[in-house]
Amino acid sequence: MATGTLHIDLEAIAANWRALDALSAATCETGACVKADGYGLGLTQVAQRLRDAGCRAYFVASAAEGLELRRALGPEPRIHVFYGHMAGDTATLQRADLVPMLTSIEQLTRHLEALPRQPFGIQLDTGMNRLGLKMAEWAAVAEIALAADPVLVMSHLSDAEDPDCPRNAAQLARFHEMTDGIDVPRSLAATGGTLLGPDYHFDMTRPGIGLYGGRPHVRAEPVVALTLPVIACFDIAAGEGVGYNASWTAPAPTRIATVAGGYADGLLRALQPGMEVMAGPVPCPVVGRVSMDALTVDIGHLDADPEHVTVLDAHHGVDALADGAGTIGYEMLTALGARYLRKYRGLRPIG
Ligand SMILES: *Cc1c(COP(=O)(O)O)cnc(C)c1O
Fold it and tell me: Less packed terminus of the chain by CB within 10 Å, N or C?
């Protein structure tokens, strides 16, 4: 086996979707955010499993992702595009029957001119200052936009993973101010907002990270495991350096295992120092720099050379790994490279 193996548990993803779905009322639909290749875990596999679990509404970033998803899901489910209707996207949006979530007056104009009969949604900016119409813009065009029958009006929270952050309530109030009284389904909550409680749910939630086992969905079932094969094991003497720039020097004679997997596989250089991998139940420190395709691990305390080591498992999740690199589970997941052999649990049979 030449590369690492990324084990992806689609049953756990489905269970996590059901658990988040159960948090909102029956009148609130639960969608699924599958942008960036299903958070790095495989757009087609993830979305098909969620469809079988009952999910009917999907969210991706770009029209190109939407097209790929349409091919995977067939004609029924609704696919929303966060980038909205960008110049050059018209043909793809139409062909793949995508719902652009329009982000500006410019996009609204473009959409109504180019695809007047194609369903669309609207993004409102309630304070995050990333995408969506601002209060004054919405006031100026709401009448025209609503006359064209949007299928969804949404906004996005900047701090939903922190229930104590006052920006949540401020954004909620702004969303009410901008949308109360309109006769269009509304959506405000991603994973964090779903966990904030019913005030944040409106008509549709659109969780992403919580499906894939990441914070803030701390009760999620673990979804990923990552094992890396050992390429070579050898002894080194006290005082010898390991890896680029000899950033680690052996304080005593020890044994090193070189493992197949490096920063090109999403094992960020920033994980060092401090990263550990598991040889069975035994933690082993990664020593020396992470290189493009390899990690070096101190295995001096093991009884035997391991055949492989584990980087992620049920007890060592993406968030713990991310903490070590000063980043977030989202970035770890989406960084996991395309070189791994992917093994799915709960994959639907082909055909
Ligand atoms: C990514 C994203 C989501 C999903 O967010 P999670 O925190 O992963 O649940 C929902 N809405 C928008 C606008 C997003 O960009």
Answer: C
In which residue ranges of the chain is CATH 2.40.37.10 found? 224-316
Atom index in ligand 1 nearest the CA of residue 209 equals 8
Q: Which protein residues touch ligand 1 with a CB less than 6 Å away?
A: 33, 35, 82, 156, 190-192, 206-210
* Dist. CA 170–CA 159, nearest whole Å: 11
Q: Is 338 exposed, middle or buried (0-12, 13-18, 19+ CB in 10 A)?
A: exposed
pLDDT digits (tens, 9 = 90+) for 169-212: 999 999 999 999 999 999 999 999 999 999 999 999 999 999 99
Residue type, 67: L
User: Which residue among 212, 244, 263, 343 is the active-site one?
Assistant: 244
Return the ∠ at Cα 164 (arms to 137 and 33), rounded to 5°.
Answer: 60
Cβ(344)–Cβ(43) below 8 Å: no
Q: Is there a catalytic annotation at residue 39?
A: no
Report how far ligand 1's centroid is from the alpha carbon of 192 (Å). 9
pLDDT tens, 98-157? 999 999 999 999 999 999 999 999 999 999 999 999 999 999 999 999 999 999 999 999
